[in-house]
Amino acid sequence: MLFPRAILKPRLKRRVFNGHPWVYDNEIDTFPECEDGSLVDLFTSSGQFVGRGYYNSRSTISIRLLTRKYENIDEDFFVRKIQKAFALRSKYSETSAYRLIFGESDGLPGLVVDRYSNYFVMQISTLGMSLFRESILSALIKLFNPKGIYEKSEGAFLKLEGIPQVSEWLYGSGPTLIPFKMNDIQFLADLMGQKTGFFLDQRCNARFLSRFASEKRVLDVFSYTGNFALHLLKGGAHHATLLDQSERALEVAKEVSRLNGLPDKISVIKGNAFDFLRNLNPGDYDLIIIDPPALVKNAKYTEKAIAAYKELNLRAIRALKEGLLATSSCTQAIREDAWLGSIHRAFNDSKKIGLQLFSGSQPFDHPVSSAVFETNYLKFRAFYIRKISDI
Ligand SMILES: C[S@@+](CC[C@H](N)C(=O)[O-])C[C@H]1O[C@@H](n2cnc3c(N)ncnc32)[C@H](O)[C@@H]1O
């Protein structure tokens, strides 16, 4: 079957040919004649077939390619793509919870699927992908026979794509707090919480950090439901204080601590991280984690966000007499060197030094694609903090 044709401008950069699935509106010479969300075939100006994808005139990313072949985009297509993605993930059996589909990295732009034990939570972020909802659903059922599949497609950006929010069980059913085990810890993915319910991307960093936990008084800033805190308590921390602005996240964290037999080991504080960090006394904690949400979306406006990273880290460094700072950034628009620069400036202003013990990023189930730099977003460092006079 053939689809409406889109033709690229001549003499384009190699990005699309090197594997990037996005085609911007200013790269297209002849636009396809079709409705938004439709499948289109993309050609070079000299008539060479580039690939097949979906079109949306409302987005600056006019086309997102799904394949470089003349193949049908149907249930079988999704079965093949999901099988490929699963084959990569199944090489590692460290957890029953992982990201099964990471959008562009798995050749499925606009789709994320996280697995929590035998429940799947999917997020669709584009009109084109939303039109394949039924095929995705059938493919997941065929491959995994799950107990339930929940769609949690939420956020203001959906309006720009022209699609409604969806927050419901599409297949089977399950609890709002989905239990799953990870690194020998019982966790809960909250379907009324953020993203797909849990931040699976930090689990390897949290696990690494737990080696340094013994007897530490921990402060988990931007804790959400306590991923870091629970890893550290399991690692032998004395106590963990969780700070987040979301009351619900903190309530779930308390439930998670009960499930793990650690209810007396945590305290929760609802508040603003920036204010809270400013008012700490040096030495109140031995280990501080800073894991803020993405601070900016657009690479043009990163200056303020870099200043905010410096301020957050400076306040945490000042609050540590000697101890550990674990700090992170999930802002895709900020490059690693710029983020690290902000931390180094914080060290200089605090008259302390940080010995870098660990450098982390995304786990294997959030693979960074060499062709799509936008898939690289998570940055993580653990520093041992000392006064310059104590080196
Ligand atoms: C990236 S998530 C943290 C994930 C968490 N560390 C984990 O591993 O599960 C960011 C968290 O920061 C919280 N948050 C956002 N702005 C905040 C602020 N100004 N003060 C305190 N918490 C904030 C959000 O509610 C969210 O739970």
Structure at a glance:
This protein is α/β, with parallel strands linked by helices.
Can you offer a commentary on this structure?
- The protein contains ten helices and 20 strands.
- The relative contact order is 0.09.
- It folds into three domains: 63 residues, PUA domain (Archaeosine Trna-guanine Transglycosylase, Chain: A, domain 4, Roll), CATH 2.30.130; 100 residues, RNA methyltransferase domain (HRMD) like (Transcription Regulator spoIIAA, 2-Layer Sandwich); 202 residues, Rossmann fold (3-Layer(aba) Sandwich), CATH 3.40.50.
- Helix 5 runs parallel beside helix 6.
- The N and C termini lie far apart (69 Å).
- The longest helix has 17 residues.
- Helix content is 26%, strand content 30%.
- A hairpin with an 8-residue loop joins strand 7 and strand 8.
- It has a seven-stranded mixed beta sheet, sandwiched between helices. It has a six-stranded mixed beta sheet with strand order 2-6-5-4-1-3, with no helix packed on it. A five-stranded mixed beta sheet has the order 7-8-9-10-11.
- By secondary structure, the chain is an alpha/beta fold.
- Bound molecules: S-adenosylmethionine.
- The site of S-adenosylmethionine (SAM) has 19 residues, from helix 6 and helix 8.
- S-adenosylmethionine binds next to helix 6 and helix 8.
Biggest sheet: strands, sense, closure? 7 strands, mixed
CATH topology term of the largest domain: Rossmann fold
CATH architecture of the largest domain: 3-Layer(aba) Sandwich
Rg: 23 Å
Strands in their spatial order, largest beta sheet: 16-15-14-17-18-20-19
Q: What level of helicity do the residues show?
A: 25-40%
Q: How many domains make up the 3D coordinates?
A: 3
Order of helices and strands: EEEEEEHEEEHHEHEEEHEHEHEHEHEHEE
Count of helices? 10
Distance between the termini: 69 Å
> What overall geometry do the principal axes of the alpha carbons give?
globular
Unreliable spans are none
What is the number of E strands?
20
Kindly report the name of the CATH homologous superfamily of the largest domain: Vaccinia Virus protein VP39
